[in-house]
Design a protein that fits this description.
Layout: E1 80-87, E2 90-95, H1 107-114, H2 129-143, H3 156-162, E3 166-173, H4 189-197, E4 201-202
Parallel strand pairs: 3-4
Antiparallel strand pairs: 1-2, 1-3
Length: 210
């Protein structure tokens, strides 16, 4: 009995291997210039903020600017006093000053107030509407003087002449429904003395009943 071999007959070539592919080179006309290596992108500076997709990460109230300093009072002007100064047909009106700094007065007015004793002064002296009106009228008359007259300071006599026949009145300004609203406001001690000094007549327009 003949035993057939299971081995394949014929030429045996051994294990098949593919030859390596030749390197691909593009055609060129001359020698190649070596290409400089591309530098890697610079790393972002560390900020201590975790790299997340939420842009709110890292927000802090420490960078929030502080609120601006309040330089002006925000309350209303009421209650206050409004005054009117009438000089030969011309009328000036204003209300009492309520700023943090006292208003700038004409030197003649300021000099007179500075001579008042403590018994004639109040904490609001120089801020009353009556004082402001007298000061403004004197300042306007001072500015209207001729160049020759303006070479010297204005005198009290010139100020009294500018206020000749002047009449001054003041009224309370209050909220609606306040019984004092619109009533005559008696000048303070300093305004009374100032008005008399410059010849200004205080007028109470309230009708009197006989």
């Amino acid at each position: 009995m003949t035993i057939m071999s299971a081995t394949q007959t014929g030429p045996h070539r051994g294990p098949q291997t593919e030859p390596p592919a030749p390197p691909h080179t593009a055609p060129h006309d001359g020698p190649r210039t070596p290409t400089a290596p591309v530098p890697a992108p610079a790393a972002a500076p560390a900020t201590g903020v975790p790299a997340t997709g939420d842009p709110r990460v890292g927000w802090s109230t420490a960078d929030t600017p502080h609120a601006p300093t309040l330089r002006h009072r925000r309350d209303g002007i009421l209650p206050t006093v409004g005054a009117a100064l009438s000089v030969r047909g011309a009328t000036l009106t204003c209300t009492a000053a309520r700023g943090e700094e006292p208003p700038a007065l004409h030197p003649l007015v300021q000099d007179f107030l500075d001579t008042l004793t403590s018994g004639q002064r109040d904490r609001f002296t120089g801020r009353c509407a009556e004082t402001l009106l007298i000061s403004r009228h004197i300042a306007a008359a001072d500015a209207a003087r001729s160049k020759r007259a303006a070479r010297r300071p204005m005198t009290n006599g010139e100020a009294r002449k500018a206020l000749k026949q002047a009449k001054l009145t003041a009224r309370h300004i209050r909220e609606d429904g306040d019984p004092l609203h619109g009533t005559f406001a008696t000048p303070c001690r300093a305004c009374t003395a100032l008005s008399a000094h410059f010849g200004v007549r205080i007028v109470d327009p309230t009708p009197t009943h006989h």
